[in-house]
Write a structure and sequence with these properties.
CATH class of one domain: Alpha Beta
Order of helices and strands: EEHEHHEHHEHEHHE
Distance between the termini: 15 Å
Protein name: Alkyl transferase
Oligomer: single chain
CATH topology of one domain: Undecaprenyl pyrophosphate synthetase
Organism: Perkinsus olseni
CATH architecture of one domain: 3-Layer(aba) Sandwich
GO cellular component, one term: endoplasmic reticulum
Shape: globular
Structural class: alpha/beta
Strand content: 5-15%
Keywords: Transferase
Enzyme class: transferase
Number of helices: 8
Length: 249
């Protein structure tokens, strides 16, 4: 499966400013004007993110039903988006990152506790050197931006976890991933963002089996004829401790 760095698969809800026409009554001499409805919102959760009136309306409607605990996104289409808009292909990845943040904001407003985003596959390393270099540079700058003091993650108490073989990444990117995980793990997490970065499902299962076998050996259970179970393997997956997705997009 080929996955782009962040996706345009999610429908854009464009910010809309609404100006209500001035109204007068038979007894009023001056017009009353209502300005933009896309003002900052301060919830009980401390969210202070701007939402358009249409976004707010959609979120309020969705809240009336069952809100999923865990939503996962397979992000794809950045390059196709760029091509269709006559842009350099790499520019599509930058727009994809911006879309990821917008989607994360929507999820926070809805009360979703876990968001998983498939952002970069191990197979993506087979792309052109120019594109891979651009993606790594983009990841480096955005990870630093997300992790800065009073940045997006800290303001909203979001824990980041990386799911993938980080050893395949350039050393500086690998280090930034480790630092971002460690830093956000100290936040009183209101939500968790799982970034599938340098990820392959086959590689994950293979590594989980190896770790499960090693754990059995350490426990000296091999000699007693103990068999490896799915629970043993599941405990070694990147997703261990995370509820399965309720919704996959």
């Amino acid at each position: 499966m080929t996955i782009d760095a962040a996706g345009s698969a999610v429908t854009t809800a464009d910010a809309v400013d609404v100006d209500v026409a001035s109204t007068t009554s038979s007894s009023s001499a001056s017009p009353v004007t209502a300005k933009t409805l896309s003002s900052s919102r301060a919830d009980d959760d401390g969210l202070d993110m701007e939402l358009s009136c249409w976004e707010r309306l959609a979120i309020n409607i969705l809240r009336q039903g069952s809100v999923p605990e865990h939503v996962a996104f397979i992000m794809d289409g950045n390059r196709r988006y760029a091509t269709s808009h006559h842009l350099p292909k790499v520019q599509g990845h930058r727009y994809g990152y911006e879309k990821l943040l917008q989607v994360l904001k929507w999820c926070l407003h809805l009360g979703v506790k876990y968001v998983s985003a498939y952002t970069f596959s191990v197979d993506n390393f087979n792309r052109s050197r120019e594109e891979v270099t651009y993606l790594m540079d983009l990841a480096s700058s955005k990870f630093a931006e997300l992790g800065q003091h009073n940045g997006f993650l800290e303001r909203h108490s979001i824990c980041v976890k990386f799911w993938g073989d980080l050893s395949l990444l350039p050393p500086d990117i690998h280090e930034k991933c480790i630092e971002l995980e460690a830093k956000t793990s100290k936040y009183p997490a209101k939500a968790t963002l799982n970034l599938l970065f340098s990820y392959s499902s086959k590689l994950e299962v293979s590594q989980a089996v190896d770790k499960a076998i090693a754990a059995k050996s350490t426990e000296k259970q091999q000699s007693s004829g103990a068999r490896l179970t799915w629970s043993d393997i599941e405990a070694q997956l990147y997703s261990a401790g995370t509820p399965p997705p309720d919704l996959l997009l």
